[in-house]
Amino acid sequence: MEKVFVAKRVANKLVSTEAAVDAAIVEVGEMMAELLQARKDLNLSATFGHDVSVKVADAMQALIAARTAMVDAHAQLDESRLRLGLRTRMVGDIKPEDAGPTGLREAI
């Protein structure tokens, strides 16, 4: 099988894995917000459910560590791509195309 097709398959899996980790981080963040809002809505003390908030924060920290590991893996895979002699990028643009004007001018 050609290197480029194998590399593309790995790149696709990398992107989907990164997206899954990001989605999990969002979910945990929303969970924390929901816990805090529920405590407020029920007019409960800040100490009520604090141990649960700590566990959710621990989960967030673990997911951030997982994201860091995936970013590191991404960089290493990019180096591997170069060692394999693949010149094309395996994943999307660095800057999203639909990012509208920022009010800043690009330096030439």
Short description:
The chain is mainly α. The protein has helices spanning 3-41, 50-83.
**What's the overall geometry?**
elongated
Portion in strands = under 5%
- Rg on CA atoms, Å: 20 Å
Helix content: 55-70%
| N-C termini distance | 42 Å
Biggest β-sheet strands, sense, barrel: none
Domain count, please report it: 1
Low-confidence stretches: none
How many helix segments?
A: 2
What's the rounded overall pLDDT mean? Answer: 87
Could you give the order of the helices and strands?
Answer: HH
* Coarse structural class: mainly alpha
Number of strands: 0
Explain the overall architecture.
The chain is an all-alpha fold and 108 residues long. The protein has one domain (1-86). The protein has helices spanning 3-41, 50-83. Helix 1 packs antiparallel against helix 2 (50-83). The longest helix has 39 residues, at 3-41. The radius of gyration is 20 Å and the shape is elongated. The mean pLDDT is 87.
Protein traits:
108 residues; mainly alpha; 2 helices; 0% strand; elongated
